[in-house]
Input
Amino acid sequence: MPSLIRRVAAFLLLPVAVFALPGCGGPPTADYSKVDLLSVDGTVTLDGSPLANAVILFEDPDTATFSYALTDSSGGYKLRFDSVMMGCTPGSKIVRVSTTMKIPGLNGAEGEGEGEVAGESSEEGDASAPVARATEQVPVHYNRESELRADVGQGSQHFDFDLTTN
Output
């Protein structure tokens, strides 16, 4: 999953890198007119209870692009294409759900990796001290080795995921 985190970070920072080129003039803007984005939302539960503060990714297995969201206190989510636009491209997606994945700008600070808890270490000021790691609540067959799939079609899409720990 660390390579997925690197792809997430690179994907989120790509618009910034492209539009920060010298000589562009004015505020950066992207042309989303050629990107077919569909509204995608839903709810995630784990063993019948809402799964709050979980990252949900809809990943295109062919292009390795994805849309993402953070579930709210009721397990609800609404996918983002990037830090500017909401939505998801159409097509067949692998769905991944994780309570430990950190995405900069969504639920993690820059440089924060999977499972890290921001601001925690065993000794203050000791750079070599281990970072406290959160325990993944979601079984591996819903995240790293996900068996979840969604076919995003035209129009608004609603996908609920009722996950179990068994």
